[in-house]
Each structure stands twice: as structure tokens, then as C-alpha cells.
Amino acid sequence: MSNVIVLGAGMVGSAMAIDMAKNHNVTLTDLNQSVLDSVKQKCSDLIILQLDVTNVGDVQNTIKQHDLVICAVPGFLGFETLKHIIKAKMNVVDISFFPENSLELDALAKEKNITAIVDCGVAPGMDNVILGHYNETMKLTDFECLVGGLPKTKKWPFCYKAPFSPIDVIEEYTRPARYVEHGETVVREPLTDCDYVEFDKVGTLESFNSDGLRSIIYTMPHIPNMKEKTLRYPGHVEYVRVLKESGFFSEEKIDVNGSQVSPLDFTSKVLFNEWKLGETEEELTVMRVTVKGENADGEVEEVIYNLHDEYCNDTETSSMARTTGYTATAAANLFLDGLFSEKGVFPPELLGKHEDCFNYFLKYLADRNIHYVKKQSIV
To answer: Is 150 found in the same domain as 73?
Structure first.
């Protein structure tokens, strides 16, 4: 049994802490004491501690009393927090999904002789694990990930609820999307190239460009075609594009009756209630990961993994928290079990390349009723 500390008691952080507490001594930290008290009521085994991650000295002194750190802070705090964890010579699993390139910290992690596993959610996360596995057994030419979190009940106009703050979602809708086509990195406008895609149990969804490839642009440069697209219910994209094109996502302040107001701040406030996911509101996660290439027999093979996961009534845990958080706790446990001990910064594709790690992820998630269903065919 190890001593584990989780930084961030949000929806995903709290789910991870509760999951890890099944086999380890877990301390859950957050700036908000009332949030910590609420999670403690769900799982009395947790130790809770109020902690400000921007206070570097406090954080480093606190985490050094543990065997592993799991970092689930907001994205805008993620990169600096991860850097301070590494400087404290602490092994870490990170799901803060910050915009900076985590591989920039690889040299520091090697210098401090620690393991940092990053981007370890559902996507980025399990799609990377799958890609890393098949990159070892096939000569890949194509990788595609389609992924989205959706409410079960569609409410007009957006038919969407966010498991995190609207400003983080809007950032996804405004950041240019990087793809790899014919071996070259290309940039697409987000919310473009919309396609309708059919999914079992859900029906027709709309896919659109988003910037989700992240580390694999750098770790898998030999794969000539790679893209990730986000999924929403049909119609969502058009309404969001109307807001975007009308200036509602602009950060440049405007004068409103003598007050300086950022349209983005205003829009986020308005959408907060519209998009806020209720604590026990039913939602689902849908993902389809496709890899294609030449197999060991010289045939062109296509392998597809489909995920359909829903809110868990038994544990009152959202699907997004389950599929994201339990991927990270799988990584934490396989590290603590000694299956992976390399030093440096490792996105999930570099764990998935090891067959025992790949199988560990799938079994760990299946044990929690999260199933990736595989189909393969010669094309």
C-alpha cells in the first residue's frame, strides 16, 4: 500500500482519489474546503487537505511526504505545477491537459530521476495507448480519433453540457487544430470540416476539427496521416460558430455603459448555467479510435476501438470522470506495481508500446465496466 496525493478535487480529481483509496492511503487536496468536505462524505477513507497549488513551497513540502502525485489541477495551472512537482523529485501522473508541450520538461525529469506520465485521460489518453500498442505491431499509415462527452438529455439550442468550465470548452473551439497529412503538419480552423458519423446507441453525431493530437505529433512523426475530431449532437457546431463569428469569444474588452467588459468573460458567464453538468445528471462518453497500416503479413489492416460509457448510478460518477480518471489511476497503479519505471516525461503512447502496460490499461478499465470494443478487418 502506497501513500498517494491527488492535487485537485474537481469532478475527475475526486473520482481518482476515491478509486485510488481502494488500495492505497490517499490524501486529496484542493483550495476549496467545502469541495473537499463533500468528497470526504462520499469516501471516509480519504485524508483531505486544503492546499493552494500556487504556493510552491507548501506544495513541494506536502507532496514529498508521499510516494506518488496525481495532478488534476485546471489547465492554466498545469504546466507550472507539473514543473514544480518534478523539481521536488516526485513521480507524477498528470491529467491537467495544459496547452504547453509537456515534452519540454523531459530533460528536467531525467535530471531529477523521476517518472512523469502526462495527458493520461480518455483523449488524450487511451487513444494514445491504443496507438502506441499498434505502432509496435504494424507499419501505420493512418490514425483517427473521434471523441465527445454528451448529455443524455438534449436541451435546445446547444444540446451540450460541460463536465468542466465553459471557458475551457470555448478554448477548444478557438484554438487552431493541428493535423498531420501526408507527413506534413497542417493547421485547420476549429469547428470546420464537419461530418456526420453514426454510433450505436446514440445515432448520428457531428464531428469537427479540434486540436487533440498533442504529443503524438512529436512522438509519432513517421505516421503520415493523423487527426482527432470532437463529437457533438448535430446542430451544436452551427450555434457555436454563430457566437464565434459574432465576436462573443473575443478577449478584447469593449465599453458597455462605461464598464470595460471582455466578450469572452461575458459569454462564459452566460453559458455557465446553460452548459453546467448537474452533479447526478446522466451523460455519456463516445469514442472511436481507428488505426490503419500494414500488418506482419504485409496486408493492409484496419483496427477500430469503440467506447460507449454512461453515467454510473451505483457510484454517482460521471462517465467523463470515469473514462478520464480511471485511465489515469490505471497508469498510477501500473507504475506503483512496477510495470513501468523509465525516467523522463511520458505521454501515454510511450506506455502503450509495452504490451503488458497496454493489457493492464484495458483490464483495469474493464474491471470498472469501461469497455473498449475492438473490430479489425483487412482492407
So the answer is: no
Given this model, what pLDDT does residue 73 score?
94
Four-CA torsion 336, 342, 343, 344, nearest 10 degrees: -100
Closest CA to 152 of 35, 318, 342: 318
CATH of residue 266's domain is: 3.30.360.10
Considering the domain architecture, whether residues 92 and 185 belong to the same structural domain is answered as no
What is the total residue count of the chain? 379
Task: Judge whether 227 and 290 are in contact, CB under 8 Å.
Answer: no
Q: Residue 282 belongs to what domain range?
A: 126-310
Residues 287-335 have pLDDT tens digits of 999 999 999 999 999 999 999 999 999 998 999 999 999 999 999 999 9
Distance between CA 148 and CA 232 in Å, rounded? 6
Q: What is the CA radius of gyration of the chain?
A: 20
DSSP 8-class letter at 308: E
What angle in degrees, to the nearest 10, is found between the helix axes of 355-366 and 126-137?
140
- Check: CB of residue 85 under 8 Å from CB of residue 63: yes
DSSP for 173-225, written as a single string: HHSPEEEEETTEEEEE-TT-S-EEEEETTTEEEEEEE----TTHHHH-TT-SE
Q: Which amino acid is at 251?
A: E
Kindly state whether residues 200 and 227 are assigned to the same domain: yes
Alpha-helical segments (H) within the chain: 11-20, 33-42, 56-63, 75-87, 106-111, 126-137, 166-174, 216-219, 236-245, 263-275, 319-336, 349-352, 355-366
With a cut of 80, say whether residue 163 has pLDDT above it: no
306 and 276 in a common domain: yes
Last residue of a domain, one of 310, 332, 349: 310
Percent of the chain past pLDDT 90, that is, above it, reads 91
Phi, psi of 259 (to 5 degrees): -105, 140
Q: Which of 258, 289, 310 is the last residue of a domain?
A: 310
**Which of 105, 97, 101, 112 lies closest to 325, judged by CA?**
97
**C-alpha 228 chain-centroid distance:** 13
How many domains would you assign to the chain? 2
C-alpha cell at 199: 454510433
